[in-house]
Amino acid sequence: MGTFIPAHLKKAREDTGLTQEGFARSLGLSSEFISLLESGKRAPSLDTLARLAAALNRDPSFFLSEKEPAFTVLFRAASLDDQARAELDHFQRYVEDYLRLEEATGRRLELAPLYAGVTPERLAAEERRRLGLGDEPVRDIFALFERSGCRILRRRMPPEVQLSGVFAFLEARGAAFALINASQTLCRQAFTAAHEYCHYLKDRHDGPLIHNQAIFYGEPQSGSRTPEFGERRLSYDDVLLIKRYFGVSAQAMLRALRDLGLLSAAQFTEFTALDPVSREREIFGASGEECGPLPGPPSSMGAEMIVSDRYRLLRELAAKKEI
To answer: What is the pLDDT of residue 197?
Structure first.
């Protein structure tokens, strides 16, 4: 028998449109028991599992994990060199320590909704609505991660390591983690974090993912439009102003504007060849593009680690309890 996956029960229930109370009532169980199952604090017996599966019109195997552990899959990636594997090893130890602290302190993170089968545009709109963002930019993507149930680690890596980010969802534990290369500029870290956050929201059950610097480049998306005759075309200074407002890199903003059809292919090629640092400094002063990683707070795990406030709090709580 595989390991029970709480997230699969929650997803199957939500897919039917049932609340925990309604689902529990239909089975003659308490809503508290269903809540414990979905949070991973209880595991069902074989008889209960069969009843859950029948009520949700699923095979019992849907709720059991027979997949390889996430880090087993990650370490098998053929493109990893020894240094990259060493970074993954650090990440795995951090994950294990984080989960140990959560268990010891009794503090778990609730997962964000899963937006499976929706377009990126709808995902973004619904998530912004859930977070109450409106049209405002996300000012701190790193803090957003753990507020939304995905634990994050930023780690300064050697220049030779080409990893930009890693996403891993531990199904049996119902826990999501993201690793960001903190040796990259702050703008690139934010871009990578947004990329991993989308995987967390959309396809976290599909397996762990490793991203290298190729995520910063790509082809135009289908459906983009060409600016119509008479429309004012964006200048390079316009692009720099918009990218500063949204706190992203010039390359990321150029791609977004191109995919929206607000930059022509010729403009995109022309602007990509320009140096954003010197021009931004000239018109705005200090350049956001120049920003390297923010100095991390003191960490007992070493200066190369930039851990979240939540992780530090868990360590403090555990220390007080002498765990």
So the answer is: 94
Q: Determine phi and psi for 197, rounding to 5 degrees.
A: -65, -35
Looking at residue 299, its pLDDT comes to 43
Which pLDDT score is estimated for 297?
44
Q: At what angle do helices 120-131 and 186-202 cross, to 10 degrees?
A: 100
Helix (H) or strand (E) segment spanning residue 204: none
CA dist 1 and 308 (Å) reads: 36
Residues of the chain with pLDDT under 70: 1-2, 65-67, 78, 213-232, 285-303, 322-323
Q: Which domains are seen in the chain, by residue range?
A: 3-65 (1.10.260.40), 70-213+294-320 (no CATH), 236-290 (no CATH)
